[in-house]
Amino acid sequence: MNAYSIELRRASIVRVLAAIICFLAVAHVASSLTRHVAGYPTVYGLVPLFDLNGEQNVPTYFNASLHLASSLLLAMIVVLKRAARDRFSSQWAVLCAGFLFMAFDEAAGLHELMERPMREVLGASASGYLHFAWVIPGALIALFFAVWFLRFILHLPPSTRSGVLLAGFLFVGGAVGVEVFEGHHAALHGSDNLIFDAYVLLEETLEMTGLTVFISALLGYMGMRYGEIALRLRAAPAHAPRSHGGPVDRKLSRAA
What we know:
This protein is mainly alpha-helical and 256 residues long. Helix content is 70%, strand content 0%.
């Protein structure tokens, strides 16, 4: 049987992802200027197609793909850790499930469903920096997992630990930190202006950069810990055709 291999070059993958992030950032700036300065809100659908604050467009699906790629890499690590009976295999599995959920959330905007209930709970307080009220449960969830994963993070190799911590700082800083100031601006001046789009650019760029750093850290960990991972696809065994035999064969069988 011939053996084929696919080599994942960490540096090349990071460069490609970084180039896409830069392209999406430039495209967002161009779409924002086209909408607010030139006064063309759609341009045959190209403006909303690259709006970082839009839904179901190119940046949204790219962001969801980054989450999904992280989940797939984590799934491979989970299989290897469970085979080795590693004591932190549960943490790897939770991370895998979390990133898979966030991929669906990014594509479908599930976190926005928390907006209305949180506004009803906060009442008049749901304004200013809490204009986007979902940041409260988002921050609490991030804090809970930061504490729960502390021992897990500390056991990682120093280079992987640094990458994971940097990725978390960038992602949470964008998703929660910048979102707070973004909400404050939206509460005072609305969301249809250049400054709000600048906040969106900073938020989404930090999130995508954080995910890219995380993917780089996972690839580095897998390369350092395992070096080479073999994936074998087993074909279903061929079953011999069932012999029905003729009349003579059936008579001999009964005689025996």
